[in-house]
Amino acid sequence: MRTKQAEDETAQLAREKECSQATDYSIKKCVCMLSTMDVTKQEKVKAYSVFKSLENREIFLSACEDDLESALS
Which of 21, 24, 27, 71 could join 64 via S-S bond, C-beta 3.0 to 4.6 A? Predict the structure, then answer.
């Protein structure tokens, strides 16, 4: 019984962490950051397709914190 409860709690924590990460690196946040940049419409379209991946959104937002100009390079 306790093993099952521990497994359920572990699974719940993993789901909460995943949701938290998705919120921190949301598409909406990426699009807002992109709108502050001087980019062409073509670059925006390319960026939108890249934002479909959680890992890519994390990289983009982290790069923007360090160097806004090179984030899309």
Answer: 71
